Amino acid sequence: MLVKINGSAVYGVEALPITIEVNWISSSGKDPMIVGLPDNAVKESLQRIESTFKTNGYDMPRTKVVVNLAPADIKKSGTAFDLPIALGILGASEQFENAEILSQYVVMGELSLDGEVRPIKGSLPIAIQARKLGFKGLIVPALNAREAGMVNNLNVYGVNHIKEVIEFFENGETGLEPTVVNTREEFFHSQYNFEIDFADVKGQENIKRALEIAAAGGHNAILIGPPGAGKTMLAKRLPTILPPLTLQEALETTKIHSVAGKLPENATLISRRPFRSPHHTISDVALVGGGGIPQPGEISLAHNGVLFLDELPEFKRTVLEVMRQPMEERRVTISRAKVAIDFPASFMLIASMNPCPCGFHNHPDRECTCPPGTVQKYLNKISGPLLDRIDLHVEVTPVPFSQLS
Ligand SMILES: Nc1ncnc2c1ncn2[C@@H]1O[C@H](COP(=O)(O)OP(=O)(O)O)[C@@H](O)[C@H]1O
Ligand SMILES: [Mg+2]
Question: What is the DSSP string of 123-190?
Answer without folding.
Answer: HHHHHHHHHHTT-SEEEEEGGGHHHHHTSSSSEEEEESBHHHHHHHHHTTS-S-PPP---HHHHHHHS
